[in-house]
Amino acid sequence: MRRLASYLLYVEGDTLLGQTFDATNLELRGEPFTVAEHVGRSTGFNIGASASGTGMLAHAAAILHRGRLTWFDRAGNSLDSVGVEGDYSDFRLSPNGATLAVSLVDPKEWNPDIWLIDLVRGGPSRMTVGSALNAAPVWSPDGARIVFRSNRKGQTELYAKSAGGGGNEEVVLTYETQHAAGIDTPNLVCSDWSPDGRYVIASVPQQTTGDDLWLIPFSGDRKPIKFLAPLSDQIHGNFSPDGRLLAYTSNESGRFQVYVQTFPLSTRKWQVSTDGGYEPRWRGGGREIYYLSEDRTLMAVAVGAGPSFAVPKTLFQTRVPEGISSRRTHYVPSSDGQRFLVNTQSLDASPSPITVVLNWQAELKK
Description:
By secondary structure, the protein is mostly beta strands. The protein has one helix at residues 175-181, and strands at 7-12, 15-22, 27-36, 49-51, 57-60, 67-73, 78-86, 88-93, 99-105, 112-118, 124-126, 134-139, 145-150, 157-162, 170-173, 189-193, 199-206, 210-217, 225-228, 234-239, 245-250, 257-262, 269-271, 278-282, 288-292, 297-304, 308-309, 313-317, 331-333, 339-345, 354-357. The chain has two domains: 7-62 and 351-365; 67-345, Neuraminidase. Strand 22 and strand 23 (269-271) form a beta hairpin. 38% of the residues are buried.
């Protein structure tokens, strides 16, 4: 059987390129050549193409979660929308509710950048610029700064910048500091900033335990501290307004549910959802917790003294993108819990077709 030539395939923009690869000497040969156009790539930098050892190649165009950020009342009535239609990987309201920080995916480069949208006067302003991934913006408790993740140096690190747009970016957490703390796959996603300003909480995928929750201090050496790390996934960490409780999503039971844990950590823990759930958020004042059920219905749970948690109540059905991920935001509540900004999928969204080429290398010999 004749051995097929070895090639390295990679994407630049939306073009799939190939280059001859010498597997014996581990060297590239010749010049890059075009294999296919309009090939997609995820925000995690996985290309939408796969080649087999028999000469077959499959590739797909963009797989974007196009939608509109739309306000709804508690009954599910649509009120108005924010910004343009696009793929919003995550978004957060400022503490005063006047500004929205969003990560909007560039449909050409497949990288999200962070934009600030003035909800009072209208109009967006760009906060980050570049070819790297800039995502997961989280507001400081006073609304003065935003922390976010970026892979501009190859590995995911955390940066902070003034929410006013001026000044320089500050490196909050380097790859080296993560590695020294025992984080073996530096691809963390920050999800909240503690009300006292001392910590950012992030989910970190680990090779042996799934996603763990870690605390990143904003003082001292900023060495990450492991908070929750059982043999399951822990994501969507969200502090209560008084900072004494932490809501999060876990599949420790074999199914994703919403839990509340004391902060600092103790033996006290409560399961809030009763029939599956993910992505918890607190109402201002801490009197309610919201979450999405498995069928993407928005749920509400009253929180009493103790704390105590009431039976979940249905608010309304959403059209958020499918799938549970630490890397996507599907909704945020207003501080008073009367409105919800929901990433509502476009009704005309259609799956991206997959193109299969039986012997793609044959074209190279013509």
